[in-house]
Amino acid sequence: MTPIAGVRRDLPARVGRTFRRHTTLVVGATILAAFAFIAVFGPALAPYPINQQNLLATLAPPSAEHVFGTDHIGRDVLSRVLAGTRYSLAVCLISVAFGALLGIPVGIVAGYRGGRWDMVLSSAIDVVLTIPAIILAIAIVAVVGPGLLGLIVAISISYAPRVARITRSAVLDVREEDFVRSSYALGASTPRILVRHVLPNVSAPLTVELTLLAGQAVLVATALGFLGLGVQPPLPEWGTMLSRGKDYLAIAPHIVTAPGIAIALLVLGFNYVGDGLRDAWDPKLRR
What we know:
This protein has 287 residues and is mainly alpha-helical. It is built from eleven helices and no strands. It has one domain: MetI-like (MetI-like fold, Orthogonal Bundle). The longest helix has 37 residues, at 77-113.
């Protein structure tokens, strides 16, 4: 029996205890669940069509008719924030998922094989990590082109080295465990050892870090959208809404307030979930 086998049997009970003991995790999961619901049903929940203009009500302040007011061409801000949830959430989740698909295999090879493999791959990772993620993402978007696809490609590639470094560190710890050495001594193949023993035992720290990276991906996507390199108008992406609204900040701050609150809450949700999972799974932090 592997160390992970017993964990699988009592997983539902452990999940329930984790949620009861860790308020941060519950709050974060609730926030993310709310955003997921809005991402799916946002356009249906929107009180107005997202691109419907009312030139007689431009820059209207919040009111009963327009809860978050209107923008510079009379579009309802609430409707656009609700519809934009789909793009912002999809970009961060897909980008982190592709970043994980690129980075995890590299980290596993570097951490488990060691030697020259580790030296070469770690050196390459270190070189890429010297470039700030936002700068690297801007450079990639300049090559791929602005838009939803360019945004996902840019964030995925810029985060892959970070995922690889995290995976390598986790694998270096696990590969020295007795159950891994025993499997190797008994003649188990490398793929079997990785799938049966290494990956299940590094999944917890990877999940925590990927959750935190998703929150950072929201900020990177927003920054690129603000610079005009993300989802292009007239699609209602939060970063683009901030960019359009900055020119009217002095006279109509509500244009940037609504998407700003949405960005802050989504990042907070990811950070709370990541912190909650870390507290729940780290034996040193258990009370």
